[in-house]
TrEMBL record:
Origin superkingdom: Bacteria
Pfam families: Ribonuc_L-PSP
Transmembrane segments: none
UniProt name for this protein: RidA family protein
Length: 134
């Protein structure tokens, strides 16, 4: 089974990519930022608020392909300023409490001023015991 989710991002059509893609039990969510549906950046300069907003967008994308946050195995975060990592970690901890995916964070230049974080995730759909149904 292959399932794709398109969120209507400005680069999805031009770049021929999906926001999320599921192949069997494996799910990948593309780099996601705090761009609102209007195209406006959510909470410019606020790492915590942008992380919460972005993780909510990721949660929606996961649900659209039949997964949930509990299925996330790996998180990659790209931060414009690692001195703000504490705000990111706080929001990440709230979203993933008890799930504990592996996490990588790096400092990176993002696409517009005030954008503080971009996040992508990999997930595997499994039951409560970790069993994967192929």
């Amino acid at each position: 089974m292959i399932v794709k989710h398109f969120a209507g991002g400005r680069f999805e059509e031009a770049g021929s990519y999906a926001r999320a893609k599921r192949v069997g039990p494996f799910v990948y969510v593309a780099g996601t930022t705090a761009i609102e549906p209007s195209g406006k950046l959510h909470a410019p300069g606020d790492t915590y608020a942008q992380t919460v907003y972005t993780l909510n967008r990721i949660h929606t994308a996961l649900r659209e392909v039949g997964a949930d946050m509990r299925h996330v195995m790996r998180v990659r975060a790209y931060l414009t300023d690692l001195s703000q990592a504490g705000a990111f970690i706080r929001a990440h901890g709230e979203a993933f409490k008890g799930i504990d995916p592996v996490l990588t964070g790096v400092q990176a230049g993002l696409t517009q001023p005030g954008m503080m974080v971009e996040i992508d995730v990999d997930a595997i759909i499994h039951d409560a015991d970790g069993k994967i149904d192929f």
